[in-house]
Amino acid sequence: MPTLSTCLWFATEAEDAARFYAAAIPGGRMGEVVRTPPGGPGAEGSVLLARFEIGGQAVMALNGNPEHPFTNAVSLVATCADQDELDRVWDALVADGSPIACGWLKDRYGVAWQVVPGGLMELLEGTDEAGRSRFMAAMHTMVKLDIAALRAAVATA
User: What sequence ranges are listed for the domain PhnB-like (predicted)?
Assistant: First the structure.
């Protein structure tokens, strides 16, 4: 069975981004930085790619064509154990970025993230229709997600 990993394509910020993500996500770690060999692509000795690991997943940051910016069509999801972890991860990722809504943000490099609590899907899937509606209504009032408020919305009868 093939293994899957993520490759994020940056204009020139691959190493900086890799170090940022490895520090922002608890348990993240920086890996190898590969420099451009003679003959390119790019300037010899410049950063070609940087490997890192977050959430137990291998990720590669690649310097390439700046004409292909990130969009919200693809996002990384950081599932957090509790509100304290969610707050720490959110604050780290949104620094110099921009909050969006419903747990989404764009980081300083333009990568879209969803920062969500563990059990989010169970809250949404495991309730009756009225509970799902209350969940969605509560979530739509939030930028950064509040786990207690979402649970309370589902539990309210």
Answer: 4-116
Map out the domains of the chain with their CATH numbers.
Answer: 1-68 (3.30.720.100), 70-157 (3.10.180.10)
Distance linking the first and last C-alpha atoms of the chain:
46
Asked if residue 21 lies in contact with residue 28, where contact means CB atoms within 8 angstroms, the answer is yes
Nearest to 138 by CA among 127, 129, 126, 147: 147
Residue keyed to tokens 């940056």:
10
Which helix (H) or strand (E) segment is 61 a member of? strand 57-63
14-71 confidence digits (pLDDT tens) = 999 999 999 999 999 999 999 999 988 888 999 999 999 999 999 999 998 788 899 9
What's the 3-state SS for 85-123? HHHHHHHHHHCCCEECCCCEEECCCCCEEEEEECCHHHH
Q: Containing H/E element for 124?
A: helix 120-125
* Enclosing H/E stretch for 77: strand 75-80
Note the maximum CA span of the chain. 67
* CB count in 10 Å sphere of residue 120: 19
